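Q: Here's a chain of 161 amino acids. Please give me its 3D structure as tokens.
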Amino acid sequence: MKKVYLFTLLVLLLMLMSSINGELVLAKTFVRQEFTQQMEGFFSEEFALDEEDSVYLYQDGEGNSAHQLQNNDSNLAFIYQEGNNNTATQNQEGRNNWAGVQQLGNDNFAYVDQIGENNWAGVYQEGNKNCANISQEGSYNWAGISQTGNNNRATIIQNNI
């Protein structure tokens, strides 16, 4: 339960630090990151294509898979996986986008796709065999999915072009 509170606190802190004059901006500049990790029981890919994009990943368990792709400017993404056989994918194209996925349990699936500017998406899954999909296109979209228990399904699609 401590990790859930820590995750929530991190999300709130990032949101507070990122809001200046109503615009979502990163409080710090990060270096370009390109990272692929494959160890026994883990697979992750992280690609931040621009200098101010940032990706973070934590995995604890076996058979977890994480994919993060960012293109353009000042995007932030993180994935936290604890359990076995979880899959998380995040794609961001545009600027000032934020995406976070936390998976606690087994066999969970989360997919976040954002195109545009100043979008926010978060997925929290606690349990087993949950599925969450968020797709956003345009600007200033906010979406969150919280799943507790087993075999839950949720999809959010937003388009304000």
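Q: Can you summarize the key feature?
A: DSSP finds one helix and 14 strands in the chain.
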